[in-house]
Design goal:
mainly alpha
């Protein structure tokens, strides 16, 4: 879907903050920044308890006061894989106990994932690949040092 030009007026202070945000995020124009931040604001409105944060892996959805949404969903997938006979409620309880999050925050992550599974699954895949790469590097270092 191609963007539709719109005329929007911003206060000077807002424009300054948008320009600063864009400069701190290489590859983002002010227009792309506006689209990103509005999209995120709308998602936060749809998913109370979720906000967005910039980190080494880019912008991502996080649970307010907690971990990234992808981390909670990965824990749910691990719980489901290890406890195939568990009910949905039992999986939520296990994930909450493992993560130290209240059950309502685990459910917040589930609701966000249900609306944006490709985004969250891609973050899980990227994190798993980075962990695998780091583990392989550690093994090579150990082989070198053991020689």
């Amino acid at each position: 879907m191609s963007p539709t030009p719109r005329s929007v007026q911003f206060e000077d202070a807002v424009l300054d903050k948008l320009a600063k945000f864009a400069m701190e995020h290489p590859g983002l124009s002010v227009s792309a920044t506006v689209n990103l931040l509005i999209t995120e604001a709308l998602r936060m409105e749809e998913h109370p308890g979720v906000l967005f944060r910039t980190g080494p892996s880019g912008r991502r959805a996080v649970i307010v006061g907690g971990p990234d949404v992808w981390e909670v969903i990965r824990a749910i997938k691990v719980a489901r894989a290890t406890e195939a006979d568990a009910t949905a409620d039992e999986i939520v309880v296990m994930t909450a106990e493992y993560s130290g999050l209240p059950q309502h925050q685990v459910r917040t992550a589930i609701r966000y994932w249900s609306d944006h599974p490709d985004e969250i699954d891609a973050q899980i895949t990227a994190a798993d690949a980075a962990a695998e790469k780091a583990e392989e590097r550690r093994r090579r270092e150990q082989r070198l040092l053991a020689s």
